[in-house]
Write a structure and sequence with these properties.
The structure is a single chain. By secondary structure, this protein is an alpha/beta fold. It has a single domain, classed as 3-Layer(aba) Sandwich (Rossmann fold), CATH 3.40.50. 37% of the residues lie in helices and 17% in strands. The strands form 2 sheets. A 7-stranded parallel β-sheet has the order 3-2-1-4-5-6-9, with helices on both faces. A two-stranded parallel ribbon has the order 7-8. It is globular. The structure holds NADP nicotinamide-adenine-dinucleotide phosphate. Pfam families: adh_short.
Length: 265
């Protein structure tokens, strides 16, 4: 049995990661976190299909206390099962937002302290705090998600980033909160990759860009995207899982796209 945790699993890409893992990797126990389990109808339906391999837990990633207590509960779950690897093999930080208004700022006039803080809390601070509290579990992972054999690879940490967080790729400006929060997330990934490379058991940490995916987050902008450039969640997650399954310790700290191609910071 291998263990995967998808943080931000109520809908969109996170939900699809859960579906993919459950359907394509039957020996995986998936822990799906979301801030309102009762309102996550599709995730609840998935749980009914996979009652023994999907566990749903409540977690608002902008709340550090909740992250700490969820990590504690997961620890009990990992240690409560004698046949378990007693480690977390994969953690995907998927929750994200464009901006609390649902639309990125087009100019400085739209920038606000509140908008910046909420977006940063969800997109950058939450994933870093997840790493703080779940790092211990990841260092006990089995390297199951990754290219085998990869020397010293324990768990895998995937931070769902976005190409617009690339500073060198920024040709249009705008979307201050989203771009800045994803750039900060990428820095967190890089820092984490350094810290988690020091021990004997190395956690491979990457930032991953899913492409432009047909979800609620991108919906306001679909009319500007060519049909063949707007991925379904199924396609995007399939491609990203191929990337994840092929990681090795040398990849840690990279910013990759859904095709495994490196994106410059
Ligand atoms: N879609 C794209 O084209 C695209 C492109 C590049 C990167 N991404 C990234 O991919 C990730 C997933 O996006 P998506 O397209 O699947 O978006 P989505 O369909 O809008 O889903 C966003 C998810 O984030 C969760 N969330 C937001 N704030 C949260 C919080 N404080 N605590 C816990 N969960 C929270 C939402 O939960 P609720 O249901 O509770 O609101 C929802 O599950 C994001 O990090 C996004 O930046 C997406």
């Amino acid at each position: 049995m291998v263990y995967a945790l998808v943080q931000g699993a109520s809908r969109g890409i996170g939900l699809q990661f859960c579906r993919h893992l459950l359907n394509k990797r039957p020996a995986t126990l998936v822990i799906a976190t979301c801030r309102q389990p009762d309102g996550a109808a599709e995730l609840q339906a998935l749980q009914k299909e996979h009652p023994n391999s999907l566990q749903i837990m409540q977690l608002d990633v902008s709340n550090e206390e909740q992250i700490a207590s969820t990590a504690q509960q997961v620890k009990q779950r990992l240690h409560g099962n004698e046949s378990s690897s007693k480690g977390l093999d994969l953690l995907i930080n998927c929750a994200g937002m464009l901006h609390p208004s649902g639309r990125g700022e087009t100019s400085l006039r739209a920038v606000s302290h509140e908008g910046l803080m909420t977006t940063f809390a969800t997109n950058a601070l939450g994933p870093l705090l997840m790493a703080k509290y779940f790092g211990e579990h990841l260092t006990k992972g089995s390297g199951e998600f990754g290219q085998s054999p990869s020397e010293g690879h324990s768990g895998t940490l995937v931070n769902m980033s976005a190409r617009v967080g690339s500073i060198s790729d920024n040709g249009y400006g705008g979307w201050y909160s989203y771009r800045m929060s994803k750039s900060a997330l990428n820095m967190a990934t890089k820092n984490l990759s350094i810290e988690f490379s020091r021990g004997r058991r190395k956690v491979v940490c990457i930032s991953l860009h899913p492409g432009t995916v047909n979800t609620d987050l991108s919906r306001p902008y679909h009319k500007n995207v060519a049909e063949d450039k707007l991925f379904t969640p199924e396609y995007s997650v399939e491609r990203m899982m191929e990337v994840i399954e092929n990681l090795n310790v040398e990849d840690s700290g990279k910013f990759l796209d859904f095709a495994g191609k490196e994106i410059p910071f």
